[in-house]
Amino acid sequence: MKKRYLRLRQYSVLLTLASLLAVVPSVHSQEVPPHTAPPAPQPSDITRSELASFDAFLDNHPEISEQLRANPSLVNDRDYVNNHPALQAYLQEHPQVREEIKENPRAFMRDERRYDRREDDRREDEATRRELANFDAFLDKHPEIAEQLRKNPRLADNQEFLENHPALKQFLQEHTGVRAQLEQDPRIFMREEDRYDRREGDRDRDRDDITRRELANFDAFLDKHPEIAEQLRRNPTLADNKEFVENHPALKQFLQDHPGVREQLAQDPRIFMRAENRYDRREGDRDKDVSRQELASFDGFLDNHREIGAQLSKDPSLVKSEEYLENHPELREYLKTHTAVQHELAENPQAFMNSMKQFENNETTNGTMKKQMVDPKPKQ
């Protein structure tokens, strides 16, 4: 009985082992897949300088360029290379390019094509910028044509308009790139020209070669000669027009005395006049700030001398009366210590007192608004 039990145990163990062996596949029985996965592509070591060098070579050898772009593997064909000594010499002189292109001709030529397209785009952009710069300079010198073309760009391709504006006709004959752009789509090109003009204006603000002293000197001159100022602001190129300068001896003398201003105007009158306009506006804003300070100061004085304030409101010219000042020494003393107020009152007493009333009204309005913000609800 015991032996029979042992045999049954052995039989059971053998069945278990057999079942396990059936589940686990043999190492030798595994099938090898018919196609192994290709290795992951390695990152390209091609540098921009290598591409630029080879691109320049291909530009100078269009026949080789066409053949290699059609079949890059030719670079590894010894007979082909020997039959093209220029290519052979180039590869010998540029071992890095030779190594890269022989290792993977298709990848190298693909990168070269991308580089070539980017270079073409860059050259086209540079050509367009040149055309815009030339056209912008022309329009600056011909403000009447500029105004009409910006209103109606299609006039640039209108034969009647061109015949009536020989300067534009001549310019387009000499600048075929601009003419081609205008013929293709005048609205788009004029829009680009406007953008270019605005960007140039932005650059003008950052120009370091225009000194504050030159602008201040020229601004002071224009303030004293409003007729010249008006003409130059309408057409800045007149500043570099010999006939105009000869007919305005004051301007001629000023430019002789201020070579820095003369040089800036000769270089680009439009840019310098734009900078002068900005300077003039800033000076105007600064003058307004000074006037507010003067008004605030005199308002404080009148608040403390209400009798004088009432009399001057009725008759501002009293401030120019020696007798009145003798009888009001506090006013005389104030004007001595506040020369800016004294100057404004002496120049136009009525205008200054009107400004005083407006200043007081603004102060009253602002004071009421501030009070309402602090205490919006009236006390019961």
Describe the structure.
Helix content is 78%, strand content 0%. The chain has 23 helices and no strands. The protein is elongated. It starts with a helix and ends in a 6-residue tail after the last helix.
In short:
By secondary structure, the chain is an all-alpha fold. It contains 23 helices and no strands.
Q: Report the portion of residues in β strands.
A: under 5%
SSE order, one letter for each helix or strand: HHHHHHHHHHHHHHHHHHHHHHH
Overall average residue pLDDT: 78
Number of domains: 4
Tell the overall outline.
Answer: elongated
Tell me the structural class: mainly alpha
Distance between the termini: 118 Å
Helical fraction: over 70%
The stretches of 5 or more residues where confidence is low (pLDDT under 50) are 1-6, 23-44, 368-374
Number of helices: 23
The number of distinct β-strands equals 0
Task: Compute the CA-based radius of gyration.
Answer: 43 Å
Biggest sheet layout? none
SSE map:
Elements: H1 2-23, H2 48-60, H3 62-70, H4 78-82, H5 85-93, H6 95-103, H7 105-141, H8 143-151, H9 159-164, H10 166-174, H11 176-184, H12 186-205, H13 212-224, H14 226-234, H15 242-246, H16 249-257, H17 259-267, H18 269-304, H19 306-314, H20 322-327, H21 329-337, H22 339-347, H23 349-374
Helix pairs in contact: 2-3, 2-7, 6-7, 7-12, 11-12, 13-18, 17-18, 18-23, 22-23
